[in-house]
Design goal:
alpha+beta, two-stranded antiparallel sheet, 2 domains, Beta Polymerase, domain 2
Length: 154
Amino acid sequence: MATIDEQTGGPQENQTPSQIAAAFQREHPEWTGEVAEAFGETTITVPREYVVAACEFLKQTPELEFKVNYHLFSTTKHHRLRLKVVLNEDDVHVPTVAGVWRTANWHERETYDLFGIVFDGHPDLRRILLPDDWQGHALRKDFPLRGYEPYSLK
């Protein structure tokens, strides 16, 4: 049975997605719409008025590592597979797979641009969405909420 961490009020670490969904449903039934499990993934439908509270609740699960996920799908056999590479904040390097799948070139550039993950051996690892002189990586949790000058909103 899934349990809530008494110190943080969030789901305990090392629970499966379905256990976290069960704790989520039990603790906040008003936040929980449909819960679906398919292809080894759990999806919780949340009413829009509760999305911020739901995210704050789930954020309380400590996540001290970066993960790079590769979602693979065989168009001929219809197999799905997810590969996960765990990184730490001090070493955010992973080898490129752009030589295996050409389209990975763009996905890796976007991940580098927004999260700062470095894909070693990438043929053209440069920003793809943000200006070249942008400082930092906008989707990392350590990025300032209002950005850096001169790009920040006032």
